[in-house]
């Protein structure tokens, strides 16, 4: 992974930065969380007001204007794409067959509310019964297979609302 970052300022403006752009900033710590920054021969007075390193959220004051900044890197984008974000519930909306097999049992119905880890169905593969559990709380939107169906790897089995 490279040192490429996406910055979201006040949930309105989006910027991209990389190590090269950051290296062109001339920043000097003047006291505690206060800095003097020079960019393109323009001076800025910067103060780090608060920092949440876990969520990568920062409040920064630049020339007495306060900004909320969220910083993400390529790993954050990959985690978000996979449906997992720090501090948020999983948003997996479809269950697909992890391997080819035979549907032995379907434990849910369309419209049914399920909790995370509730059994959804049993898939037989290589003479083993595999219980497929719900990845999150939700409501079943559709079931695209029936008991006795043979399924291929990656085939859609269940969708959530």
Automatic annotation (TrEMBL):
Pfam families: Biotin_lipoyl. InterPro entries: Biotin_BS (IPR001882), Biotin_Carboxyl_Carrier/Decarb (IPR050709), Biotin_lipoyl (IPR000089), Single_hybrid_motif (IPR011053). Signal peptide: none annotated. Keywords: Biotin. Residues 83-161 form the Lipoyl-binding domain. This is Acetyl-CoA carboxylase biotin carboxyl carrier protein subunit. It comes from Flavobacterium sediminis. The lineage of its organism: Bacteria, Pseudomonadati, Bacteroidota, Flavobacteriia, Flavobacteriales.
